[in-house]
Amino acid sequence: MPATVLIVEDEPAILELIAVNLEHAGFETLRAQNGEDASRLLGDILPDLVLLDWMLPGQSGLALARRLRGDPRTREMPLIFLTARADEPDKIAGLEAGADDYITKPFSTKELVARIRSVLRRRKPQHGDSPVEISGLRLDPAAHRVTGNGQPLSFGPTEFRLLHYLMTHPNRVYSRTQLLDEVWGDHVFIEERTVDVHIRRLRQGLAPSGHESLIETVRGSGYALRAETAAMSRA
After folding, report:
1. Exposed end of the chain (fewer CB within 10 Å): N or C?
2. What are the residue ranges spanned by the domains of the chain?
3. How many Å apart are CA 33 and CA 10, to the nearest integer?
């Protein structure tokens, strides 16, 4: 079954260009020219991915992204920004709002299709993996559930995959490039700074149960999840 992409873009010519190219690549498309129309569509159907412009009339794309990530119904939905805002602070803001990728205009339609496919591949759930627990932090890949000392913790899919990888490879330091390879997979389009953003969001998600200190920054090297071997167990 073809994946469905909701395109939220206020420029009709760009909207048409994107839709035609995605449909030619085998996707089904939904179209919205502002946040309000997008919200109405999302109330009726959940697409496989949202492609979102930042500068929309009325509600901004950034505000819409934050709202989607705050709603349990749409929290896990893949989201890519496609915007003319190319400055680094804007990219960081978009990623921190919950975007899985950030593409700047002008853009290549072939690269856009490749990035969409890459995000959809990364977001496929991992089946058959056993739960893992470290120091009271428990991650269940099959249920896509994390608890800290029995308290449910909320993570976006990228942070979930990152935490899963670090928990199954504790006490080892990984560079940003290594994490891009292992967690993002098709990382050719992803900047290394993206890892820092998701590590920050991962720590924020771990804070309610006090587990944020498990994620250690190793200056000049990368990141590690520190845990005593005796504290580790697999359910």
Report:
1. N
2. 4-122, 132-234
3. 4
Report pLDDT for 123.
67
Task: Give the Å distances, CA to CA, from 116 to 93, 103, 168, 181.
Answer: 20, 10, 27, 17
- Surface-to-core class of residue 1, CB atoms within 10 Å of its CB (0-12 exposed, 13-18 middle, 19+ buried): exposed
Domains 4-122 and 132-234 share a fold: no
Q: Residue 118 corresponds to which tokens in the numbers above? A: 């890459």
**CB contact at 8 A, 192 and 223:** no
Q: Quick one: tokens of 89?
A: 């602070």
Asked if residue 211 lies in contact with residue 148, where contact means CB atoms within 8 angstroms, the answer is: yes
Inter-helix orientation angle 157-168/193-206, to 10°? 90
Alpha carbons 7 and 49: distance in angstroms, whole number: 9
DSSP state of 144: T
Which range (42-56, 131-145, 215-229) has the least confidence? 215-229
Which residues have CB under 8 Å from 89's CB, separation 6+?
none
Distance CA 15, CA 7 (A): 7
Which CATH number, 3.40.50.1220, 3.40.50.2300, 3.90.780.10, 3.30.70.980, labels domain 4-122?
Answer: 3.40.50.2300
97, two tokens = 């709002």
For residue 6, the 8-state DSSP code is E
In CATH terms, the fold of domain 132-234 is Arc Repressor Mutant, subunit A (1.10.10)
